[in-house]
Amino acid sequence: MKLSKVGAAAAIAVALALTATACGGDSDKPAGDASSSAGAKKDKIVIGIKFDQPGVGLKTPDGKFTGFDVDVATYVAKELGYTPEQIEFKQAVSAERENLIANGDVKLVVASYSINDKRKAKVDFAGPYFLAHQDLLVRADDTSITKAEDLNKKKLCSVTGSTSAQNVKTKLAPEADLLELGGYSECLTGLENKKVDALTTDNSILAGYAAQDKNKGKFKLVGLSLSNENYGIGLKKGDKELQTKVNAAIKKMEADGAWAKAVEKNFGPSGYKAEPAPAVTEGS
Fold it and tell me: Are 231 and 114 in contact (CB under 8 A)?
């Protein structure tokens, strides 16, 4: 009788072990053949985006996400094996993008993230996937600012961690009174209330703000090209496999027409004319 109990217990243990193996103990690993990770389904991917940039990356009051960067992120995630429901979007403010990547809080950052050498010392990029130009946004009735030099002695607003304000301050209008805030929405409020005279960042972002229904007729772009801003997808330094896969996804998005559709959908209504898709050069 004792032998029978031992045998039964052993059988139960084996059955439990087989059940645990079938269920899979590591929720982060893809189901199916691990060698085909590009097409495999995983639990989720965390991607950093902007939450406050209309047309680029915006979290709406009902909790949805819209914008060109959101469409790019969704497409790239699909090519990596994730459905839209498996994407978790995390806010990536300008000053925290490198930290989010380095700490492993996000897998990718798709957040109007201009590629430059200073950032490449800390993270790697895939892309670029978009070319923007730095411009100025002013009040619609302001005729005193038509070029960057006009910002001298005036109040200029941008976001902490952004390259745009420093570009003006160090190269174009060194006597500008620079105010750096946490988000572009705060700068926009200051511009409307005449606390600042101009807001500077990429023209794609400024166009999105100016095109919002609540802002129509209040602001205008000066129409300058103060710099070239190549947007890249940030990822952990040294992850060449992921970089290669993301580059391939960007190229596919451009080739199959999805990139052009996303540009028209997000920027077309504002009248903003985007540059053609740039060549993918990072990692090559």
Answer: yes
| CB atoms inside a 10 Å sphere around CB 235 | 23
What's the CA gap between 136 and 203, in Å, rounded? 8
Of 24-38, 89-103, 168-182, 223-237, the range with the lowest mean pLDDT is 24-38
182's enclosing H/E stretch is: none
Q: Tokens 């892309």 map to which residue?
A: 127
Omega cis (within 30) before 128 = yes
**Do the Cβ atoms of 67 and 58 come closer than 8 Å?**
yes
Fill in the amino acid letter for 36: S
Q: Which two tokens stand for residue 241?
A: 């496999």
Q: Are 219 and 104 in contact (CB under 8 A)?
A: no
Report the C-alpha gap between 247 and 238 in whole angstroms. Answer: 15
Q: Determine the Cα–Cα distance for residues 265 and 146; give it in Å rounded to an integer.
A: 29
Exposure class string for 131-166: b at 16+ Cβ within 10 A, else e: bbebbbbbbeebeebeebebbeebbbbbbeebbbbe
- How far apart (Å, rounded) are the C-alpha atoms in residues 174 and 238? 37
CA distances from 236 to 61, 122, 125, 207 (A): 31, 8, 8, 30
Q: Phi-psi bin for 102: left (phi > 0), alpha (psi -120 to 50), beta?
A: alpha
**Residue 40, pLDDT above cutoff 80:** no
Q: Specify the pTM.
A: 0.77
Tens digit of each residue's pLDDT (9 = 90 or more) over 227-278: 899 999 999 999 999 999 999 999 999 999 999 999 999 988 777 888 999 9
**Cβ-based neighbour number of residue 7 at 10 Å:** 10
Instruction: Give φ, ψ of 205 to 5 degrees.
Output: -70, -45
